[in-house]
């Protein structure tokens, strides 16, 4: 994501440019390196630091990005005022915050405070926790910025930066296509490429899906047919026959094109975010997708949803192929890395789990295999994937940090469990039903912080090669 | 460590195995929570639940591991066979293929589980009478030939679900308690007190580290 663009003309290089004066935002790797050096002079305490940047911390992610280009970008007066008010209120009321958020704060406090003190890396994610109102990716200001970026051939790094903190639903489909490398940046090439790719997909369907299957392919199809009808039992959309057939085709074509893995249970869940996002493009008036009847769409629209879901899924899974090959080595490696990571950042929690004989494989296998889709409501998964897609090729390793921050998020609840059974039942059924994108923002911000911390010390995760 | 749930005399680890879609997860949810979902999500990897039952006045706590049916998951799920003293091998009475695959699952157990594991063959979905594809007698005969116990269940209408678990836990309990009479519990695996899991018999393989069953 960190390009070598001229910071003066590029507001998206905000993190790099302003990381010292407007900290709070998880800094990119380069800055951390420089910050670790002793010559860097920063606030003498976290409180000083917090006070010095309090004007920035109240704003949602979007507005953070705006600040980057102070000289060239207008800040809405209303936004800045309400943001300032938010800061004041929240500082004033910081003792009135719900217990849980305080507890959550403490969950990472021990290493975090040390880290801040020693390295002058501000704890921006914490602030998100306290101050961010729910659902920020659909704010007007954010939509405007997306629209202006998308109006011209966008710079991909710029789009990634903007997307990292959430994409408004109105522009999510086109942004996901761009981030997936499916839709060309070049405006003139777009319609031609899309048309060709979509036709390619339908040619594949014609050639393979409706052809006579050999035994391997029959097995694949059999497994897909078992899984698709029971994908999201609580969402009526996925009970519709038309939808199920679309999923079956997407999964089947993907599987035969990836013979090293083939179809693996859970990959069906990974189609759903793409499907919903491309479906939402055709849903008018904020109708809920959960109860939408796809048969009201035209044949052409359905063909677009299906083909685009397929191509974007394919791109997305490219980085995590080894999760699904024989023995699922990719997952086993990541489970091990997760354990190593938690051992280092929160030994208390790690010891607690070990003391009660909980192994990381027992709970994190599903997290990694299904990229948390089973642990989060679908709306949250979609918001999380805004960030994953913005992470681009780094998403495979970033996902590990997301899992770590997800586990740490529940630390207090886990510490209260005092036996194997209690721990495992909780870990299998983490109460995220009421989560919104604000929790996801916390999650990815914490994950980013971990990533930054460990990107400097790759040997901490011996087999981790993802960050560069 | 002293919640009510932990007051038990024996802790038995049991695995649920069988083809995809035969109803393993629903058997488990019916048994442990009295719940059933017609379309329940596929199991990814392994899921865990537990329930205690009385056998001969003793409290038996069953720690049950529900495994994913797809072949690709075998490497992961097989790790959970170790230390298991019981296995419910489930097929769908309405899908003959799931019954044909029982032999493969038995091989799987032979390769990865304790050789003395108690195995019960379970024909699930007995409510689907009109779709029956596997005859009760045929399955029963197969079970006898292979030294398995046998039962047909319906997680949907609850038929025989408790009984299936009750039977296998009782069978395990009998073996364990007889073994205790024969040789007192100072051996390496029989621990009749709380907390520690019970193995039916020591495994013969000597490849070192025996993974602890559970707690």
TrEMBL record, chain A:
Basic and acidic residues composition-biased segments: 1-13
Gene3D superfamilies reported in the protein's UniProt record: putative rabgap domain of human tbc1 domain family member 14 like domains, Ypt/Rab-GAP domain of gyp1p, domain 3
Record-linked InterPro entries: Rab-GAP-TBC_dom, Rab-GAP_TBC_sf
Protein's UniProt keywords contain Iron: no
Domain Rab-GAP TBC: 166-392
PROSITE patterns xrefs: TBC_RABGAP
MF annotations from Gene Ontology: GTPase activator activity
Keyword annotations: GTPase activation
Region (Disordered): 1-38
Domain of life assignment: Eukaryota
Name of the protein: Rab-GAP TBC domain-containing protein
From TrEMBL, chain B:
GO MF entries: GTP binding; GTPase activity
InterPro entries: Rab_GTPases_membrane_traffic, Small_GTP-bd, Small_GTPase
Recorded topology in the membrane: Lipid-anchor
Superkingdom as given in the UniProt entry: Eukaryota
Subcellular location: Recycling endosome membrane
Keyword vocabulary terms for this entry: GTP-binding, Lipoprotein, Membrane, Nucleotide-binding, Prenylation
PROSITE patterns per UniProt: RAB, RAS, RHO
Pfam families for the chain: Ras (PF00071)
A single Gene Ontology CC term: recycling endosome membrane
Family as reported in the entry's similarity comment: Belongs to the small GTPase superfamily. Rab family.
Record's protein name: Ras-related protein Rab-11A
Organism annotation: Zophobas morio
């Amino acid at each position: 994501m960190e390009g070598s663009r001229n910071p003066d003309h590029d507001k998206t290089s905000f993190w790099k440019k302003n990381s010292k004066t407007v900290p709070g935002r998880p800094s990119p790797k380069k800055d951390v390196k420089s910050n670790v050096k002793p010559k860097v002079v920063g606030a003498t305490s976290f409180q000083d630091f917090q006070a010095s940047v309090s004007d920035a911390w109240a704003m949602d992610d979007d507005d953070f990005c705006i600040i980057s280009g102070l000289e060239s970008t207008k800040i809405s007066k209303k936004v800045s005022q309400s943001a300032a008010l938010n800061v004041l209120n929240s500082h004033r009321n910081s003792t009135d915050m719900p217990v849980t958020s305080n507890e959550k704060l403490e969950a990472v406090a021990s290493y975090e405070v040390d880290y801040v003190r020693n390295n002058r890396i501000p704890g921006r994610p914490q602030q998100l926790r306290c101050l961010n109102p729910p659902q920020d990716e659909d704010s007007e200001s954010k939509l405007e910025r997306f629209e202006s970026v998308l109006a011209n051939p966008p710079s991909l790094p710029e789009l990634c930066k903007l997307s990292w903190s959430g994409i408004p639903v109105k522009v999510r489909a086109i942004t996901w296509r761009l981030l997936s490398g499916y839709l060309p940046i070049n405006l003139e090439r777009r319609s031609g490429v899309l048309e060709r790719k979509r036709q390619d997909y339908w040619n594949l369907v014609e050639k393979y899906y409706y052809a006579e299957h050999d035994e391997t392919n029959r097995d694949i199809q059999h497994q897909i047919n078992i899984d698709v009808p029971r994908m999201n039992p609580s969402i009526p959309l996925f009970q519709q026959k038309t939808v199920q057939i679309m999923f079956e085709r997407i999964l089947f074509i993907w599987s035969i094109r990836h013979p090293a893995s083939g179809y693996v249970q859970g990959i069906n869940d990974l189609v759903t975010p793409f499907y919903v996002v491309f479906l939402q493009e055709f849903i008018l008036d904020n109708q809920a997708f959960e109860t939408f009847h796809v048969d009201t769409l035209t044949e052409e629209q359905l063909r677009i949803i299906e083909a685009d879901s397929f191509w974007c899924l394919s791109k997305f899974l490219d980085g995590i192929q080894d999760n699904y090959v024989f023995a699922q080595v990719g997952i086993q490696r990541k489970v091990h890395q997760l354990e190593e990571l938690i051992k280092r950042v929160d030994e208390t929690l790690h010891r607690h789990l070990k003391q009660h004989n909980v192994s990381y494989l027992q709970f994190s296998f599903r997290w990694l295999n299904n990229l948390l889709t089973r642990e989060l409501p679908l709306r949250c998964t979609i918001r999380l994937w805004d960030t994953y897609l913005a992470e681009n090729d780094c998403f495979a390793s970033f996902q590990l940090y997301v899992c770590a921050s997800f586990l740490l998020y529940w630390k207090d609840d886990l510490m209260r469990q005092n036996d194997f059974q209690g721990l495992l039942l909780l870990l299998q059924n983490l109460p995220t039903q009421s989560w919104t994108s604000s929790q996801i923002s916390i999650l990815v911000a914490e994950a980013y912080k971990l990533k930054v911390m460990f990107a400097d010390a790759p040997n901490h995760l011996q087999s981790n090669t993802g960050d560069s | 460590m002293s919640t009510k749930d932990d007051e038990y005399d024996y802790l038995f680890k049991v695995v649920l195995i069988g083809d995809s879609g035969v109803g393993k997860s629903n058997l488990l949810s019916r048994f442990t929570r009295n719940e059933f979902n017609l379309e329940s999500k596929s199991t990814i990897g392994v899921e865990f639940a537990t329930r205690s039952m009385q056998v001969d006045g003793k409290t038996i706590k069953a720690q049950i591991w529900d495994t994913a049916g797809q072949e690709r998951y075998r490497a992961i799920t097989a790790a959970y066979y170790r230390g298991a003293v019981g296995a419910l091998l489930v097929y769908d009475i309405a899908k003959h293929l799931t019954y044909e695959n029982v032999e493969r699952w038995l091989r799987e157990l032979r390769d990865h589980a304790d050789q003395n594991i108690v195995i019960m063959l379970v024909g699930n979905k007995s409510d689907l009478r009109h779709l029956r594809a596997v005859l009760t007698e045929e399955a029963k005969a197969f079970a006898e030939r292979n030294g398995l116990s046998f039962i047909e269940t319906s997680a949907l209408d609850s038929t025989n679900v408790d009984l299936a678990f009750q039977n296998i836990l009782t069978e395990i309990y009998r073996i364990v308690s007889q073994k205790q009479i024969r040789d007192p519990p100072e051996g390496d695996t029989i621990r009749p007190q709380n907390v520690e899991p019970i193995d039916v018999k020591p495994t013969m393989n000597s490849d070192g580290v025996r993974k602890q069953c559970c707690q």
